[in-house]
Amino acid sequence: MKLTNREKVKLLLETATTVEQANEVIEENFAFESLQEKVAFLKGMFDIEVIGHEEAEPDEMTYFAMLKTIICI
Question: Which of 3, 44, 50, 64 falls 20 to 30 Å from 9 in CA-CA distance?
């Protein structure tokens, strides 16, 4: 069974040991230009939301909290 690039990236994110490592995976595989793009990517790939902040503009704290959640799942 051959994994798609998306499946490989998802696996790398889920097995990362730090948020910095997970962020590196995203930066090495995608050319996102903003934090908002990274957050949108995580929402789409992992069906994840930050409760109570759905309408707020995502910031770095939101992004790293989402990465930490993915690592801990």
Answer: 50
Cα separation, 37 vs 3, in Å, equals 24
DSSP, res 71? H
In eight-state DSSP terms, residue 3 is: P
Amino acid at 48: I
pTM: 0.85
- Separation of CA 63 from chain center: 7
pLDDT on residue 9: 93
**Please, which residues have CB within 8 angstroms of residue 18's CB and are 6 or more apart in sequence?**
71
What's the distance, CA 68 to chain centroid? 9
